[in-house]
Design goal:
The complex is a heterodimer of chains A (212) and B (326). Chain A is elongated. Chain A has 212 residues and is an alpha+beta fold. Chain A has 2 domains: 37-45 and 54-133, Beta-grasp domain (Ubiquitin-like (UB roll), Roll), CATH 3.10.20.30; 142-207, [2Fe-2S]-binding domain (DNA polymerase, domain 1), CATH 1.10.150.120. In chain A, 34% of the residues lie in helices and 13% in strands. In chain A, strands 3-2-6-4-5 form a 5-stranded mixed beta sheet, covered by helices on one side. Chain B is an alpha+beta fold and 326 residues long. The longest helix of chain B has 17 residues, at 308-324. The termini of chain B are far apart. The model of chain B has no long low-confidence stretch (mean pLDDT 98). The chains are: A alpha+beta (212), B alpha+beta (326). Strand 1 of chain A pairs antiparallel with strand 1 of chain B, so a sheet runs across the interface.
């Protein structure tokens, strides 16, 4: 879904420009991080107690979209920033960064959460699924297909979060009626106002009996 | 966000020790309020003590008392059969709060520990006695549409935003606490504080004290209950006014009643006098109106929130009517 804007003929080449800017930002922030990080060794704890000091990074092992990662992060790095900045998984969006918009929604051990309001170090040992992990190769997830078919987005910025939330909403059993869908999707804001079409997409997947 | 050290203690005692030793340390559970406050620079702890690995995640029934471990998620509590059958008011209140994503992160203890707050508390460029004691209250002479109508002081008029806590106040829950001096039990109504001259203190927990869980006693309030939340949009917004109503009705007579309100005070606002006014009465709109008038007698309003008094009265009547199905 993150490539959907490319299919819009009105903005050819947009993705390339964005990627160039993104790579520049990544390079410069990596250099900056290198310059600022003191060469301290992380001590992973005695008696099962894990500790990271004020300027220390600490090891984090987690699985993202089926792939195991062993990473080193500052305690203050959110899961959202880890996904976007360290793993290059920029499908998960930073909207408000305060848990108010839902653009950063990912699944942790199968449950949807706001990745902006949790620390990466708190996710030790967890299994994370992002929008990049939904499709099976070139076959889109039924909810991704439905969002395209029912025109469940305009600008697309909230869409990865909407789709991750929608998949969880159906799996939880909270997609029984348009009213229930609206209530249980209320943590995902769409400022283009594609709500009617989002509800239609979720309803179609639910009624279609697809395995999500 | 400020830099901080991070510790993940392996035992409850180690967690309490870590907080007792370090003045600026904070526990972190779901993090949904704490990290938000840290991103805004409202608080800047130097150490976070991650309690998520402690064995405080459970929902059990012991001698008819429902015990909910402090780390049980809001979504887990809302959906649990023991809660939906024995204390459906709590389930309704939880589902009225936040979004499903946040309920999948927020814990029972963390919900109680979320700050009583207003937009001036969050705006670090403005005076706020809660954030910086003695600096003044920007809300009293400012935009105070969302603010308290009960129990406020000339220091602070912010409201507690929880829905879960309103139901727990109505259900006479008990807060279980462990700390450097041992364990203690706090009646729910005595857990949170009114602002008085110390609006920086939201509750009566001491340094190093950790909420381990809550107990909810058996109650007759399984049928005639309703949680009403009135807000600016249909879902995912703080309450302007919320009402937890529970009635025990037999032979068309109210045997006992529980009423608490949210969005109106610095702490969950229990309405004891209005409850008394309902006992022995028939469940009618007229009697609910009388109780609602009793409930709002001590209301005091500010420039922009006078609407909350009739809204509170009407909300009480509506919630009681829904609870009694009249």
């Amino acid at each position: 879904m993150s490539q959907a804007p490319n299919e819009n003929p009105s903005c050819p080449g947009k993705r390339d420009k964005h990627e160039a800017r993104r790579d520049f930002l990544k390079q410069s922030s990596a250099l900056m991080a290198l310059a600022l990080t003191p060469p301290l060794v992380v001590k992973a704890g005695e008696h099962d107690e894990t500790i990271a000091g004020l300027f220390e990074k600490m090891p984090v092992s987690l699985e993202v979209n089926g792939k195991a990662y062993q990473l080193s992060v500052e305690p203050r790095v959110t899961l959202l920033d880890l996904l976007r900045e360290q793993l290059n998984l920029t499908g998960t969006k930073k909207g408000c960064d305060h848990g108010q918009c839902g653009a950063c929604t990912v699944h942790v051990n199968g449950q949807r959460i706001n990745s902006c309001l949790t620390l990466a170090v708190m996710q030790e040992g967890k299994k994370i699924t992002t929008i990049e992990g939904l499709a099976q190769g070139d076959t889109l997830h039924p909810v991704q297909e439905a969002f395209i078919k029912h025109d469940g987005f305009q600008c697309g910025y909230c869409t990865p979060g909407q789709i991750m939330s929608a998949v969880a909403c159906i799996r939880e059993g909270h997609a029984g009626s348009p009213e229930e869908i609206r209530e249980f999707m209320s943590g995902n804001i769409c400022r283009c106002g594609a709500y009617d079409n989002i509800v239609a997409a979720i309803t179609a997947v639910k009624q279609g009996g697809h395995t999500v | 966000m400020n830099q901080f050290s991070y510790v993940r203690p392996a035992s409850q005692q180690a967690a309490i020790d870590a907080l007792t030793k370090d003045k600026s340390a904070r526990f972190i559970a779901g993090g949904t309020n704490l990290l938000d406050l840290m991103k805004n620079g409202v608080v800047a702890p130097e150490k976070l003590v991650d309690i998520n690995r402690l064995p405080l995640k459970s929902i059990t029934l012991n001698n008819n008392t429902l015990h909910i471990g402090a780390l049980t998620l809001n979504s887990e509590v809302a959906a649990h059969t023991l809660v939906t059958t024995r204390h459906p008011l709590l389930s309704q209140a939880l589902l009225a709060g936040a979004s499903q994503q946040l309920r999948n992160m927020a814990t029972t203890g963390g919900n109680m520990m979320q700050r009583t707050r207003c937009s001036y508390f969050y705006d670090i460029t403005m005076p706020c006695n809660k954030r910086t004691p003695g600096s003044g209250c920007s809300a009293i002479g400012g935009i105070n549409r969302m603010h308290a109508i009960f129990g406020a002081s000339d220091q602070c008029i912010a409201v507690h935003p929880s829905d879960m806590c309103i139901a727990l106040a109505a259900l006479d829950a008990t807060v279980l606490v462990a700390g450097p001096k041992g364990n203690r039990r706090i009646p729910f109504g005595e857990f949170h504080r009114l602002p008085g001259n110390t609006p920086d203190k939201d509750n009566n927990l001491g340094k190093g004290e950790l909420i381990t869980g809550i107990d909810i006693p058996a109650s007759p309030f399984t049928q005639n209950i309703y949680y009403l939340k009135v807000r600016d949009r249909a879902s995912y917004a703080f309450a302007l006014v919320s009402v937890a109503a529970a009635l025990d009705i037999s032979n068309n007579t109210i045997r006992s009643a529980r009423l608490a309100m949210g969005g109106v005070a610095h702490k969950p606002w229990r309405l004891h006098e209005a409850e008394k006014a309902l006992i022995g009465k028939t469940p009618t709109i007229e009697n609910f109106r009388i109780a609602a008038t009793v409930a709002t007698q001590s209301a005091r309003t500010y420039k922009h929130n006078a609407f909350k008094v009739p809204m509170a009265q009407n909300s009480l009547v509506t919630a009681l009517s829904k609870a009694a199905a009249v």
